[in-house]
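re the bet — no i am not wrong, look at it urself. input seq straight from the record:
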Amino acid sequence: MKRHILFDFDGTLVDSAPAILECFGRVLQAHGLQPRRAIDASLIGPPLRQTLQTLSGHGDPDLLDALGASFRDIYDAEACLRTPAYDGCHEVLEQLRARGLGLAIATNKRLAPTLRILSALGWQDVFAHVFASDSHPARHADKAGMIAALLHDGGIAPHAAVYVGDTDADGRAAAANAVEFWPVAWGYGTFAASERPLETPRQLLDRLASAPAEG
């Protein structure tokens, strides 16, 4: 059985899309910009600066800095607190903890709103480690590096862990660290049936029970 469950956050444990997409629209409007593409759930997941560049159609560093600052002001102050957990996640996390499993988060979200959401949901003590896009800037530049740092700090052997996420990028980051990846069907990515995505959070418990024993 896997002893450590590593989670993505947006699209995996929480439905961040409505609040984030609302903020993107408000930020562009505040700067007199029109979105260069549809503001929809496909924008959720990549780092903030990359998404703002995609939406604005501009690569000017000063403009992106200003857009990022506006987003953080709006999102961190109040919008992030309107982020619900997916149905069933709270109960599953409680059962995982009761079984003595180590839980951690590796997310492209920034650390400040991640921690605010965790606190609002009553999950501030659930995860042994929370790694975010800006939590250890000198140690990782992408999610693969983030997972590597998490494994190191937690003393976690890759074969004893599973990474649960909702996008192909999550799967690639896990594979880069020789960590097994379990996709979820309720997030922002899409997976073929052959990839065996989890259809409900409860299925995570079922799959863990049937997984081969690990050291």
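see?? Helices lie at 17-30, 48-56, 61-77, 89-98, 111-120, 143-154, 168-175, 202-210. told u. also The first helix runs from residue 17 to 30. so pay up
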